[in-house]
Design a protein that fits this description.
alpha/beta, 7 strands, binds NADP nicotinamide-adenine-dinucleotide phosphate
Length: 267
């Protein structure tokens, strides 16, 4: 990562995160990794929370190679004690929390006809219950600090439109996340805590590569054909929108869902 400090005080004030502390779940890989890099570039201290400790440590080391502003913590977001530990660790290291990104998520494709209750529940536990637990812990901390905050939930275009068979449990979890976003925005608005969601289209990540490694044609092939801008997205395409929502530029934006999909939904 190369750090390019902006020479414009106006842009630094608008989009910079100097002095802010962010927690990014699922930041050991994919979109979360991209978000953590953008936050560090913008001057924030970042806690990398992921269930995969070696991936989390690798990302923290990468960020710390340029500025000693990252820490990592092994966290399963679906486990309440882990989420409590994640917040405590961040507070011990950085003293406060200003930004939470709920990125950790799983998308194991399975048709409803073959889906067990355990399959269904695991996806809800990570994607929706995990987002709730992290949001509640972080929002209460932010409320106590009294200086507002930012919560950004990484949902999906699948919350609006099923992209392929086999993701009913996932699509339902992300639809729930959109409503969690709006309800939390309502409840925490008086504390100047904004809550928004970003809905990515198809993004090239380790998680998607793993899904495509299954037998038969890659399940994302049909999806690809509908992307109006002619390419699948990158973690940076999503990180740019998340950075905007975390910054002063989005001071008056809450309860919204931002589709970032290269035009997939209109294709
Ligand atoms: P990814 O490459 O698989 O990265 C997700 C990271 O989260 C991995 O490091 C994963 O660890 C970790 N994780 C999984 N379960 C966790 C848990 N219970 N607690 C903490 N960390 C956990 O996935 P991605 O493609 O970047 O997706 C990130 C988010 O974007 C997800 O919420 C996904 O639904 C959403 N999204 C992705 C796309 C896309 O096309 N990529 C599109 C729309 C929305 P392991 O490696 O151990 O699993």
């Amino acid at each position: 990562m190369t750090v390019h400090p902006t020479t414009s005080p106006f842009l630094a004030e608008l989009f910079g995160l100097e002095g802010k502390v962010a927690v990014v779940t699922g930041a050991g890989s994919g979109i979360g990794h991209g978000i953590a890099r953008f936050f560090a570039e913008a001057g924030a201290s970042v806690a990398i929370a992921d269930r995969n400790p070696s991936a989390a440590e690798r990302v923290a080391d990468e960020l710390n190679a340029h500025a000693d502003r990252a820490t990592w913590i092994e966290t399963d977001v679906s486990a309440e004690p882990d989420v409590t530990r994640m917040l405590r660790h961040t507070l011990e290291r950085f003293g406060r929390v200003d930004i939470l990104v709920n990125d950790a998520g799983i998308f194991p494709a399975k048709l409803i006809a073959h889906m067990s209750l355990a399959d269904w529940e695991r996806v809800q536990d990570v994607n929706l219950r995990g987002a709730f637990l992290c949001l509640r812990e972080a929002a209460l901390q932010m409320r106590g600090q009294g200086t507002g905050g930012r919560i950004i939930n990484i949902s999906s275009v699948d919350s609006l439109h099923p992209s392929m068979p086999g993701l009913a449990h996932y699509d339902a979890s992300k639809g729930g996340m959109n409503m969690l976003t709006r309800s939390a925005a309502l409840e925490f608005g008086p504390d100047k805590i904004t809550v928004n969601a970003v809905l990515p289209g198809l993004i090239a990540t380790e998680g998607v590569a793993a899904m495509n490694r299954g037998a038969g044609p890659p399940p994302t092939e049909e999806f690809n054909k509908r992307i109006v801008l002619g390419r699948i997205g990158t973690p940076e395409d999503i990180a740019a929108c998340v950075l905007y929502l975390a910054s002063n530029a989005a001071n008056w934006v809450t309860g919204q869902t931002f589709v970032v999909d290269g035009g997939y939904l209109i294709g």
